[in-house]
Every structure is written in C-alpha cells, then in structure tokens.
Design the sequence.
C-alpha cells in the first residue's frame, strides 16, 4: 500500500514536472539568455537520464559518454552539410552510427566491472577526444565547426521558444522512457546485474548481452543530445565533447540521486546552469565541482533525491512505531 502511494506520488510529481518543463520555454521566452540556459538544461536532463540508466541501474560508469555524443554531432553536421539531409533524418542516422561505434569501441570493456570498466571507458574517451582534434578534415580540429544551421521546422528555421520547447519535449520523453524501462523485465535485469552480476548470471541472465543492450540505449541518449547540442549552440569543437563533459553529466546523476528516475533531473536542473551563471569565474567553478564531488562521495552517496527518500522512509517508520505504541 505504501509503495503504491509512493509510486502514485512519484507519477503525479513527474506529470507536474513535465507540464512545467513544456510550459517553461514560453514563460521565459522574453529573456533569451535565461531561455538559452533553460535549453542547455534540457539537453543535460536528457544526457543525465541516459547516464543514469548505465550508472544508476546497471552499475557502469561510461566516461566515454561525451565522445559518443561528439561522434553523433559531427556525423549529423556532415550529413546535413555534405549530403543535404534534413536534420530530422540525419539525427536518427547519426545517432545509430554513433551508438554502433560506441558499442564496438566499448565491447572489450563490457566484460569488466567497477573501477576497471570506468578506467577503460576513460581511455576510450581520451582516444576519441584526440581523434576529434587530429582529424581536422572531418572535425576542423581545435578550431571547431561554426554556424551549424538549426533544424528546419514547418518551412523555416527552428529557433527561439519553439526550439526550447522541442528540447523540453526531448527531455520529457527521455525521462519517461527511463521510467518505463525501470519497472519492466528489462529494467529489473539491469538492476539484478548491478546488485550481483555473478548471481544474475547464475539464474540465467546474459550479463554481456544485457550490458550491450544497456550501452546501446545509453549511447542513443548521448547521441541524440549531441545532435541537439550542435544545432542549438551552433558550434562544436573537441572541448564540447571531452572527458570533463562526461564527468559533469556523471556528477549531475550522482548529485541528484542515481538509481532513481527524478534524481538526475534534479541534479541537471541544479548543476547545468552553473557554468553559464558563473562563466566569468572559471576558478570558482572548478572549486565548486571539486567540492560537490567530495560532498556526493562522503556526505550524500544517495544524492539529493536518495536522501529525501531515506528521510521519508525514516519518518514513515517513526510514525508507524508511534501509532503501534498508541494502540498498545
């Protein structure tokens, strides 16, 4: 009964947040600076939800996340510029390509777990960053690619509040997909692998197969977000898809609460705007990132939402004991 109430409360909270997210682009359309920060927050919500599926539910920390996003962004740009594809066709193709490349590169590391998987994915991310830099014919190197055209939308370029609304819809869909996956048989297998992969394999769960499937889904989240990022910002460079971006997305998941649907949303909403609000204080931003990482590891291992759930659970148990004492 209590679990059902919590689930229904979470569902209602999710509906409210979705409505607010879809309305926010129009409510804030009068200030393009704030609206731009909102759009970047939506992209990070999408990324954090994807990272959470791997880190929170499968127990993998894919630090090559940003590299996969970069592969998709560059592929989408070349399909739209060189081949003349529309954005809405180039994005699925580029995302599928990036996910395939990510799986091929990450396949050897999927047999690893814990720190070893993280270290291997970090090496892959470093290789991808170097590839973005040293293949200027494809990526334009450190100079980057500017004037990336926005998508076409009903006969004209997508911009302003309409683009922000599309990003909000993408973020809402991304979070909703995670919410649908988690209670399903697939999601329960992911959780079983996270909790004890040896036991999961003993009861017939194909560990490597489900890790590959999770990695494909996570890579698609990264890739779609990368394509939207390129067209929304209008500029891409290797710095936009380096290991620091992967670490920032991971921090959003850990800070908000990994292994929960709403936790990464909370983390992204709080942390994604900080680089833009403190853009003139780079040193302070770096210090703040370090402090947050230490805080999450030592003081809030469950993140904000995880700590909130524990507080509610303790409060419910205390109320139950008090009621039992009164009846006695």
Sequence:
């Amino acid at each position: 009964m209590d679990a059902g109430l919590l689930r229904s409360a979470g569902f209602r909270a999710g509906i409210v947040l979705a409505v607010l997210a879809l309305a926010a682009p129009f409510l804030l359309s009068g200030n393009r600076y704030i609206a731009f920060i909102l759009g970047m927050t939506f992209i990070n919500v999408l990324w954090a939800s994807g990272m959470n599926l791997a880190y929170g539910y499968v127990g993998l920390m894919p630090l090559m996340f940003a590299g996969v996003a970069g592969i998709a962004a560059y592929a989408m740009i070349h399909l739209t510029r060189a081949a003349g594809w529309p954005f809405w066709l180039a994005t699925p193709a580029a995302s599928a390509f990036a996910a395939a490349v990510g799986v091929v590169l990450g396949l050897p590391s999927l047999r690893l777990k814990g720190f070893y998987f993280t270290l291997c994915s970090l090496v892959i991310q470093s290789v991808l960053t170097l590839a973005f830099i040293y293949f200027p014919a494809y990526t334009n190197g450190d100079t980057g690619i500017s004037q990336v055209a926005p998508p076409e939308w009903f006969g004209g370029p997508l911009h302003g509040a309409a683009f922000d609304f599309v990003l909000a819809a993408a973020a809402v869909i991304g979070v909703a997909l995670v919410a649908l996956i988690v209670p399903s048989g697939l999601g329960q297998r992911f959780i079983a692998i996270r909790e004890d992969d040896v036991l999961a394999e003993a009861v017939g769960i194909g560990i490597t197969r489900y890790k590959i499937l999770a990695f494909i889904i996570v890579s698609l989240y990264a890739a779609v977000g990368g394509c939207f990022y390129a067209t929304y910002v209008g500029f891409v460079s290797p710095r936009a898809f380096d290991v620091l971006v992967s670490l920032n997305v991971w921090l959003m998941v850990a800070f908000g609460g990994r292994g929960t649907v709403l936790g990464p949303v909370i983390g992204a909403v709080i942390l994604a705007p900080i680089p833009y609000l403190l853009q003139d204080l780079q040193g302070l931003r770096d210090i703040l990132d370090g402090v947050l990482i230490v805080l999450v590891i030592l003081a809030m291992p469950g993140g904000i939402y995880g700590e909130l759930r524990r507080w509610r659970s303790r409060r419910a148990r205390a109320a139950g004991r008090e009621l039992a004492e009164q009846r006695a």
Notes: Residues 278 and 285 are 7 Å apart (CA to CA). The first helix runs from residue 2 to 27.
